[in-house]
Amino acid sequence: MCFAMDTIKESAVFSPRLIKEDDIYGKAGYTLNLVKPNVYQFHTRGPGCHVFLIIGEDINLLIDTGIITKFNSLNYLLTTEVGLNIEDINLVINTHEHFDHISSNAYLHCPIAAHRWAATKIQHTDELITKGKKWGVDLSNLKINIWLEDRNIIDLGDVVLKIVETPGHTSGCICLYEPVKHYIFTGDTLYKGAITNIYESGSISEYINSLHILNTLRINSFFPSHGDFVIGEENVKKEIEASIENAKMELQVFIQKLKSKPIESVKIPPSLYRREKEDL
User: Which of 28, 32, 53, 145 could form a disulfide with 111 if both were Cys (CB 3.0 to 4.6 A apart)?
Assistant: First the structure.
């Protein structure tokens, strides 16, 4: 009862706030926000993704490491504003396998975790999926130490996170859900005001299913890897339901586009890895 009252009190009095905009790297760096007590957002401006830091009682967790070209900014704000060194990070969890979420893994020396469907692509340096070369980022020799699955629990001491499988954007996407205080880190699965892009290894039908799974959870705030976060249970529900409807419409448009073609013009495409002009 006391814990529940503390949770209510915390949500009533706490408001996210700006800590500092990077004054060395400027727009090429991050903006540091405190989004919940002991939860920091390294907000990206331009290429890359947001990086989140949870300072736990037992474990300091970094959710994604961001694009490698912004690591100096991450390290600068971490040391000068948060008061931690990069060696103080005990665990990294990648929300999926794209380059803008994983490339700074190279600078971390703690265990790194990802969903098993993301881990296998990262460890094989599967460029078709990870997109490193396209953006001039070397993703070779990255390792994943912990291969996650749905409903795994990460206990940071005073914060518990539950892994939620949410394939769609890619096959290896996950969200990290705090089931006591009801907030969630949604990676590239749920955004404010937009649906995700579907890339190689992903599926829009799996994406719709993943959104339905999120819609079964009690969520009072979500923190995506791109764009703005959303506060308020009703606001979260509206975003999820709008994403479901928009994704369904996009799927139907694609299906109708295919159906409108003469049958002789609909050809089975070659394997993605055998295309003559590869988009890497």
Answer: 145
